[in-house]
Design goal:
It comes from Limnospira indica PCC 8005. The chain is of the alpha/beta class. 50% of the residues lie in helices and 10% in strands.
């Protein structure tokens, strides 16, 4: 039974790591007022796409009460970014946002005054400003322990942070790989993926007018671009390959934004012109392995100029979809991210389209 794009992408979630990291970790004790200050100036920040703030007013109040009472609280987990030296919150955003909201005086989820509720009588109904001077000082000086990690090797990316994030964020609905990438590798390239994801031809092919909330559609665009620009250097796991490509191109320094836009838009528009909404769908749903290689093969041919003989292009495409060799490395394979299989399907697609006029 052929797999959908969703299944193809989720299969890659289970890939095992085949490399090791050198990571430095150390502990740090932060006073609460120092954490608030660092959150405000951005030297400690919560990735935009982490799951939202989920604590209710009572839970938030109880956490502040614990600090006021001098009770120990769970530590937070931070990662130091190599390029900016900022600290990214991997685990602990509920605690950090709670103290930030309390100091600001507004409980952000409902935009109401943040006063303590359902806590000890001496604190009930109080805000940060109405706490006694002694209690404010006690809260300011309360310690929240932190573990800080920094990747030493490899030195050209911070992909270990992805895997740490993945393993620590297990509460509630787990984030999908591309959601985690949006947290770890936020920047110009990630913004460009979101922009390209709205292209009408792509939306019609993907089969949904609105972007996927779990960002699988963006992952497919990333997968095409990574294999187009760096396919010769592909190494499994696919997840790691995509992490490295996005991480190294985070600020669009290696590949020009206009070049990336051109290759995606030109290729997806040609695919839509010839195959319409049926593109990359051997059966009823888009297949990720078919998508990535057909897009790369088509993009390689378009490097030589526009395609005039659309009929021949379609004929060669249909032959591919009927070829047992091609089906064995796309639709029928359970190992679509193996290096030999990725290289085989890319080669077959490139060869199928290279001489189309």
């Amino acid at each position: 039974m052929p797999k959908t794009a969703r299944q193809n992408l989720e299969d890659s979630d289970e890939e095992l790591l085949t490399f090791k990291y050198s990571i430095t970790s150390y502990g740090a004790d932060y006073p609460v007022d120092s954490l608030v200050k660092r959150m405000k100036n951005g030297s400690i920040y919560v990735p935009q796409f982490q799951r939202g703030y989920v604590w209710d007013h009572r839970e938030a109040s109880r956490f502040i009460e614990s600090l006021l009472l001098g009770l120990p609280v769970p530590g937070i987990f931070l990662a130091k970014e190599q390029d900016t030296q900022k600290l990214l919150v991997i685990d602990g955003q509920q605690r950090l946002k709670t103290i930030q909201y309390f100091y600001d005086g507004v409980f952000e989820p409902n935009q109401r005054e943040f006063y303590l509720t359902k806590v000890a009588d001496e604190f009930d109904g109080l805000t940060y400003q109405t706490l006694s001077e002694e209690d404010r000082r006690r809260l300011d000086d309360s310690i929240i322990p932190a573990t800080i990690v920094k990747q030493d090797e490899p030195s050209d990316d911070n992909s270990s942070i992805y895997y740490i994030f993945e393993r620590l964020n297990t509460g509630g609905q787990q984030l999908k790989p591309q959601e985690i990438r949006a947290c770890i590798y936020h920047g110009e390239f990630n913004n460009l993926l979101a922009e390209l994801n709205y292209h009408q031809c792509w939306r019609d092919i993907y089969g949904s007018p609105k972007p996927d909330k779990r960002m699988r559609d963006q992952e497919m665009i990333l997968r095409f671009l990574a294999l187009y620009f760096e396919g010769d250097n592909y190494q499994k796991p696919m997840k790691g390959f995509l992490n490295q490509f996005l991480g190294q191109n985070r600020y669009l320094k290696k590949y020009d934004k206009s070049a990336i836009q051109l290759v995606f838009i030109r290729t997806i528009e040609t695919a839509y012109e010839v195959w319409g909404g049926r593109a990359f769908k051997p059966k009823n749903q888009i297949n990720a392995a078919v998508f990535d290689c057909i897009m790369v093969g088509l993009a390689r041919r378009l490097e030589k100029g526009l395609i005039n003989d659309k009929e021949s292009l379609n004929t060669n495409y249909q032959h591919l979809l009927k070829s047992q060799n091609f089906l064995d490395v796309t639709v029928n394979s359970s190992r679509t991210t193996e290096k030999s299989i990725v290289q085989s399907r890319l080669s077959q697609a490139i060869n199928a389209f290279e001489n189309v006029q």
